[in-house]
Amino acid sequence: MTTWTVGQVADVFGVTVRTLHHYDEIGLLVPSERSAAGYRLYTDEDLRRLQQIVVYRRLELPLDEIASLLDGDEDPDVHLRRQREVVMQRFDELTELVVAIDRALEREMDERPATTAELKELFGDGFSDDYQQEAQERWGETDAWKQSAARTSRYTPADWAEVKAEMEAVNAAFVAALESGEPATGEAAMDAAEAHRLHIERRFYDLSHDVHRGLADMYVADPRFTKTYEDLAPGLAAYVRDAIHANADRHA
Amino acid sequence: MTTWTVGQVADVFGVTVRTLHHYDEIGLLVPSERSAAGYRLYTDEDLRRLQQIVVYRRLELPLDEIASLLDGDEDPDVHLRRQREVVMQRFDELTELVVAIDRALEREMDERPATTAELKELFGDGFSDDYQQEAQERWGETDAWKQSAARTSRYTPADWAEVKAEMEAVNAAFVAALESGEPATGEAAMDAAEAHRLHIERRFYDLSHDVHRGLADMYVADPRFTKTYEDLAPGLAAYVRDAIHANADRHA
DNA sequence: GGTCGCGCCTCACGCAGCGTGAGGGTCAAG
DNA sequence: CTTGACCCTCACGCTGCGTGAGGCGCGACC
């Protein structure tokens, strides 16, 4: 007996008969022989192919990719390496997941991530969803945005409250420097600028001094940012921009 | 504006509109309001629920479980802990996967895991798939079987050849002891028994001396095992059994 | 040679969790 | 009053099989 029936093959390889039927249907593994009665008969070669299929399935490759891998002229090496990357990525995701679950367990949903509504309560209408939407459109593809989104998605209302307090402290420092009559290139203003940069870096995303410059320019160029600062003190937007540039110069 | 439309909600929460429709269809998240034109309008409370859903989805919980979790009286803690275990298990699987991929890359499918056909070539008909089948039925649920299956599934033909050589060496030791006229309780026989146990432990599964006794009894009770030994030398099956028991006594 | 029981066959529908049109209203802006 | 971006409701498609239903094939035992 040098051929095997579905049941035998299924048992040995730990798959179901239906799975073998399916592989036959889609042409992934068509048994080389059939008995007079129409029984599928698998040869050694078929088994070798199935062996490969089973291995690739454990790698969670879709069946059509397995097919092209086994039939095609493509280098299995390439596929394997790609698959390795995919698995490693899943790995990272799972790591995050475990962390998320642990956090969820710790706080038992009491201090859960904040909703947009709560963010609005905290930050006022400056934090509108329309704005978030636009921000995503403008920055959605950048690493900074992704990093920021990844972090803030896990912030609780309490975290956000802290963030807000930090932001207000930085702004207050700017206002104080401005109202003391110190120029934007002065120590206090530059220190506030550096504090601003560190705040963002700590809470949202990596921020080099150069990128910080770009942000500063936007504070003046984009009326919504400008308004936030101008509401605090007239001329603050430009003052902040200049302070940030001066601070960047200082750290150049 | 204290309610949101599908598109707004979708953007902010990073899901698609279709997903929201789906959640509505299956009753997982039915928006509290509808506009005159039939637009779905999501309230703050709806968003809070969606927030929970999104979190649980990241945990890969099926939607119906999420529903019972959010609606039911069940303790979310229990679900979370269970989910954590599931994720950790996936973790282990992925670890194995990466190892498997690396091995596959190393040997580039050349020294791939052996097929049943190859095993038969190596071990003769004693290693029939029928037998494997039965073994799985008898032992399939035991840890030992699983452990063995997990290990052997990655054995290459070369590995199996080594296994076979080891087995033959052990058997030869038994035969030599038997033919030298030494009793089964003698040193040489007991040493062979211990070598037998260590061989299985190294290649297949953990094997205590007590479990080893059970195996020994089966060698006499099950005609196929008996045959394997009797073919080597008459009376060997019983001799092996006795030697194993003696060895187990020695290590008690 | 009947018939038991297991294994094989071919349909064919079902499942999750949406994706992806089709075909048609709605709403703010110009 | 039109345009264009949204919204609506069907409704079929996709993966990778699970799960019967209804019906032959085959070795064993009577």
Automatic annotation (TrEMBL), chains A, B:
SMART domains registered for this protein in UniProt: HTH_MERR
Organism: Humibacillus xanthopallidus
Record bears the keyword Transcription regulation: yes
Keyword Isomerase: no
Protein keywords: Activator, DNA-binding, Transcription, Transcription regulation
Top-rank taxon, per record: Bacteria
GO MF, one example: DNA binding
Name of the protein in its database record: DNA-binding transcriptional MerR regulator
HTH merR-type domain ranges (all copies): 3-72
PANTHER family on file: HTH-TYPE TRANSCRIPTIONAL ACTIVATOR MTA, REDOX-CYCLING DRUG-SENSING TRANSCRIPTIONAL ACTIVATOR SOXR
